[in-house]
Design a protein that fits this description.
By secondary structure, the protein is α+β, with helices and mostly antiparallel strands. The protein has two helices and 15 strands. The chain folds into two domains: 29 residues; 156 residues, Jelly Rolls (Sandwich), CATH 2.60.120.1440.
């Protein structure tokens, strides 16, 4: 009887050890190795996109870059599609979009001259509205009270106020005015003396 009792005890101990080892093995296998490191994945920031060249300073112009011309100065740009853009003193402009068939310029204040070489649309966002330029030269002047726009070459310019009214300029010398945040006025031919005020920005900036 004693022999049988000792045999049963040995079998019980063997089963207990085997059971403990089986329970511990998965926990040990699931634990990560100390000192191992997962590779870090860092998202690369997109490189700034160049959309044109500042002709006077010979530096690149980037998409979304805010260009500020101080008193007595101006900025002349050539965009990647060949469109020429000039802003006069105390003016602010940025290129918000740039594609083969659509360019978006934003003019915050001051005076500007855009000579579009793109058969697609050059969209100009203004404080008092917007305008679409197709293969044309156009100039404008923004003051706290009004925005004046004049057509300087053959082509087509559609000017829209915040109220939704749109007028079309399709002859050289035609001009419109947006008073405050109102609608653009009916197109009218600008007298030659006043036309020089808008064409002069090109020579004014080029001579500085």
């Amino acid at each position: 009887m004693a022999f049988l009792y000792r045999r049963l005890v040995r079998i019980g101990l063997t089963l207990a050890v085997a059971t403990a080892a089986g329970l511990a093995a998965p926990a040990f296998a699931a634990s990560p190795d100390i000192g191992s490191a997962e590779p870090l994945s860092v998202a690369a920031s997109p490189a700034p996109r160049v959309v044109g060249q500042d002709l006077r300073r010979n530096i690149s112009v980037l998409l979304g870059q805010r260009l500020v011309a101080g008193p007595g100065s101006g900025i002349a740009l050539k965009l990647g599609d060949g469109t020429n853009v000039i802003i006069g003193p105390n003016s602010v402009l940025s290129v918000d979009e740039f594609a083969a068939d659509r360019i978006v310029l934003r003019v915050e204040r001051g005076s500007f001259h855009v000579d579009s070489a793109n058969p697609g649309l050059v969209h100009i966002v203004l404080p008092a509205g917007s305008m679409g330029v197709r293969a044309a030269a156009v100039a404008g002047r923004i003051t706290p009270d009004s925005t004046d726009i004049v057509m300087l070459s053959p082509g087509r310019v559609d000017v829209t106020g915040f109220g939704g009214k749109t007028v079309r300029l399709d002859r050289q010398g035609l001009a419109t005015r947006i008073q405050g945040l109102g609608s653009p006025s009916s197109p009218a031919m600008l007298p030659q003396e006043r036309l020089k005020d808008f064409t002069g920005i090109v020579s004014q900036v080029a001579s500085r």
